[in-house]
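Closing statement on the phosphoenolpyruvate sub-project.
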Amino acid sequence: MSFTLHGIGVSSGIAIGRAHLLSHAELEVAHYSIAPDAVAQEQARLDAAIQTAREELTALSDSIPINSPPEVSGFLNLHLMILSDTTLSQTPKDLIASQLCNAEWALSQQAEQLIEQFERIEDDYLRERQTDVVQVVERVLKIMTGQARAIPQARDDEAGILVAHDLSPADVIVFKKHRYLSFITDVGGLTSHTAILAHSLNIPSIVALHHARQLIRENEILIVDGTNGVVIVDPDPAVLREYELRREEWELERQKLGRLKTTRAATYDGTRIELHANIELPDDVHPAMDQHAAGIGLFRSEFLFLNREELPDEDEQFEAYRKVAAEMDGKPVTVRTLDIGADKTLNDTTRVSPNPALGLRAIRFCLAEPQIFHSQLRAIYRASHYGTVRILIPMLSTIYELNQTLHLIDEARASLDRDGIPYDKGVPIGGMVEVPAAALSLPAFARKLDFLSIGTNDLIQYTLAIDRTDDEVAYLYDPLHPAILNLVAQVIRTADKMGKPVAVCGEMAGDVKLTRLLLGMGLRQFSMHPAHLLEVKQQVLKTDLAVVTGLTQRMLKAEDPDKIGTLMAKMNA
Ligand code: PEP
Ligand code: MG
């Protein structure tokens, strides 16, 4: 039976395909073969992980308060029993030896077998115990693989739509290697990094669907309308035809936009506008170049650090930055220093911050880990010899952080001088304006910086006090809130007065509905995912600056959201 689900569309377009469910308890893991002489070592790895899981469960069991309900210790004992059963502790080891496969694969194969057996049990209670098996197996897998969870490979014969409860940014990055048409998730906010990455994949996607994972069945046909945030499950033939037509129209529109690639980005009255691209990984430079971006306005370097056990060393980073700088062939490449923390975590992170978005994130993390920062700064400077590189510091909130950062930059440069390694001595240093404190005391920061970039995703999160990743408060995300309008306009004005170039690199820059507003505020540099670049360029070409500047001034004075809405509609008419 057909039904419809509503969520938040994070990437436009229409996808039609079969559902592939990624369960909470997905047991998909890395699959690789091992050499015969590695069998004992692989079996020992599994033994060690099972032993660690046992210790974790025993420790948990010991720490249960006396007055806890008996179910708590009952469930822990059950998990300990499952763990000790030979079906989990011995059979996977036999599989490692007979199939010469890695321990995670052996364990997940065995788990699938067990789940199938449980499925056939008549008794409801016993059948539901399969969840416990899955949880135990997940615990062991987690110990073996760190936090990483592999996204299943789309079947080759037909690209599907991934349906998940939640996906981390690290999960989404794995998508780049697979052929998915779209993904939809139960949770997530509009500017979560997961959603932002959906843009970079250029596939229609929806978050905050709440129950998609429970209501949709494997292999069901889905229509994902990313523009309107709607999923149609098991559509009627007539609806399917209608959406196939819409999909064709959408694709035609995009092709038409392609004609603007080489057109100069300037407003109707001839003012030059710079449209840069945001990238996550070095290969993203290709779509950026394909869309004729004026430069890379934001290279989110932390994505080099995700989904792996060891951090990339200086040489590996240098190679990544050098590649981008060289391929951009003299156009500016803005490398943002490591913005780890909040929803982007390293695999080996042991400390869980009570409030990660307000915790040791971005520049705070780098200043707390000067060695990691030093390697990155050296790598960026080394790459500067091969193109035009700029450095961008995220999440500055106090001037002390900036002073300390500039000092560490000097140290990195001095160490390169000592080693006789060439680098560009004039690399511009920029700061991100994403904490209201920085926006409100901008001159102190701007004096010490060469350029500024407004990270509206975080600026909105921190100004309106809404967690970017929490869909329950996603309705409060509002770039048109008078506080945001005035803050962004004030930053642009102050930067202009001080003669410092300023860009917007948050999602506002790629939202075509906001292009005229930002132009009206005086913005001349935008940085966005390459997928939005031509649409924004089209809007720039059709914009008369004098008209939008006047309307923007009126919007900045308006207190009533309805008035702001009316002026916006007028602006985009
Ligand atoms: C921002 O906060 O707007 C930004 C561009 O940085 P990120 O989205 O990576 O936090
Ligand atoms: Mg940010």
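The longest helix spans residues 39-62. With this model delivered, the sub-project is considered complete and its resources will be redirected to Aim 3.
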